[in-house]
Write a structure and sequence with these properties.
The strands form two sheets. The chain has a four-stranded antiparallel β-sheet with strand order 3-4-6-5. Strands 1-2 form a two-stranded antiparallel ribbon. It is globular, with a radius of gyration of 21 Å. The protein is of the alpha+beta class. Strand 3 and strand 4 form a beta hairpin. The two termini are about 30 Å apart. The mean pLDDT is about 90. The chain is about 55% helix and about 10% strand. The protein has 19 helices and six strands.
Length: about 325
């Protein structure tokens, strides 16, 4: 989770959270306390913050207003289509609901969710969007789950003019005292205390055409989404030097060997990476994932990618890649092609 918390993101989401907080009586300073975000950042449409800074704003709201029923649901209903930039454009211009889900999940790193998403398509007549919140801190987990669900329903209504209810919703949280708010919002009664959050949809819904489908616009938007994701994943400082060394000497190179290449002690390397908010292990995993994505995109076989990245076999690599991205290497490669 550490690497994802360091990814840059737009200040739009933080601004929406601050609006929610101030409407409930908090001051701007209370909402932003300890986050490192300034009022000027919120007013600058080009400004970017780290995901962990937004998470700090979430914690401020939950700490001060956590006794308000469905606070996360309130937050999620503030996220409209215009809030999501190119991510929303890529989703909107998709030909069908199915394709929109694929795109939305694949480029989730430039949206605002903190959960780990994947889209599982079954051979039968359903598909499931799965969201794992288990890596998130306990104190903010339910708020972020509620926000995602309400955000999804809000965007859905704006696209189709009315909610398109899933056939089943399972939530990885206990049933709250305000469970009726979930049922009213979603359109079906959720199942609570699930291991992960799951949204099940039938083929009837998945095959619906998107009202603003446009193949050319979709291709342009998806390429822009890829460019933004790659730019936001770039590293600077010591982390950038470590990544370059890993790419040069191999992603399986040990921390001791990398430290020697950079002419510093392991202790100094750890200290500098800690100051940049990432560990060597997370940086190695991040680099391995990015290299895997690049190799798959240019047509390298799964077996060859696995061998180049140091995995014992293709099965081990497939398991790791699915854990990173929520999809298999084969599906990822086909989608990129």
């Amino acid at each position: 989770m550490t690497d994802r918390l360091n990814l840059p993101r737009s200040t739009m989401s933080a601004a929406l959270l601050v609006e929610l907080g101030t409407e409930h009586g908090l001051t701007l300073a209370q909402c932003l306390r300890g986050s490192g975000i300034t009022p000027a950042d919120l007013e600058n449409p080009r400004a970017e913050i780290r995901a962990r800074q937004e998470l700090h704003v979430v914690r401020n709201l939950v700490t001060a207003l956590g006794d308000i029923p469905g606070l996360g649901l309130q937050a999620g209903q503030r996220y409209h289509l215009y809030s999501h930039g190119i991510w929303a454009f890529a989703v909107l211009s998709s030909p069908t609901v199915r394709h929109a889900w694929r795109v939305g999940v694949e480029y989730m790193d430039i949206a605002y969710s903190f959960g780990r998403w994947r889209f599982d398509e079954h051979n039968g007549d359903t598909a499931v969007a799965v969201v794992d919140y288990s890596g998130l801190p306990d104190d903010v987990r339910t708020f972020l789950l509620e926000r995602d669900i309400a955000e999804l329903i809000t965007v859905d209504r704006e696209v189709f003019g009315a909610p398109v209810s899933p056939s089943m919703v399972e939530l990885s949280c206990p049933a709250p005292a305000y469970a009726d708010m979930f049922t009213e919002l979603i359109g079906v009664e959720p199942v609570y205390d699930a291991p992960v959050t799951r949204i099940t949809m039938t083929d009837e819904i998945l095959n619906l055409p998107m009202p603003q489908a446009n193949p050319h616009a979709a291709a342009v938007a998806e390429q822009q989404a890829v460019d933004i994701m790659q730019r936001r994943r770039e590293r600077q400082g010591t982390a950038a030097r470590v990544r370059a060394a890993l790419l040069t000497h191999g992603v399986a190179t040990s921390q001791e060997e990398i430290a020697a290449q950079l002419r510093m002690s392991v202790r100094t390397l750890r200290r500098r990476l800690d100051a940049e908010g990432i560990s060597f292990r997370d940086l190695a995993t991040e680099t391995r994932q990015l290299l895997a994505e690049e190799l798959l995109t240019i047509g390298t076989t799964v077996e060859d990618v696995a061998q180049r990245l140091g995995y014992a076999d293709a099965s081990s690599f497939t398991h790791a890649f699915t854990r990173w991205t929520g999809t298999t290497p084969g599906r990822f490669a086909r989608a990129r092609r």
